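hi! just following up on the protien thing from before. the input was this:
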Amino acid sequence: MSTCTDSVVGDILSSWRYDISGISPEMRTDYEEHLATCAFCRSRQRLHRTIDVALISLSTLCIAAFLLALAVIHHVEPLRTAAKVIHLEHTAVVFTLQAAAILGLLASLAAWILVAIATPAPGYLTGVAMEQARVLQDRIPEELRSRLRA
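and the predicted 3d structure came back as:
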């Protein structure tokens, strides 16, 4: 489908980036019904949630990479040898690299926080996790399920 079935509702949803998680349940019913019937808006919502999850995942990977860089800079001895070869003072090289890694870490943390605040990605990921947990719980045999409830 190349166009929205109801342009008024589609325009409202697109201005909210297809996020209806923050509106009241009374207002949500019309939008949920529209998303259920309109393949165009549903695909756009899926695209936006994919972008949100990709951004939060990328910023999480950057945080991990900068933490790893800080650990490597702090613990790796070859930096001393490299500093001697190019006639630099070891502490100056280490402090410069650590400062760059800390700035990168802070920038990644700021990006993660901005993405978490500005997008519904955390709520979306929680919903996906809860849905998967329900699926897994349904696969548990009844005898084990009764033990878990007790």
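Residues 19 and 39 are 16 Å apart (CA to CA).
Residues 7-149 form one domain.
cheers
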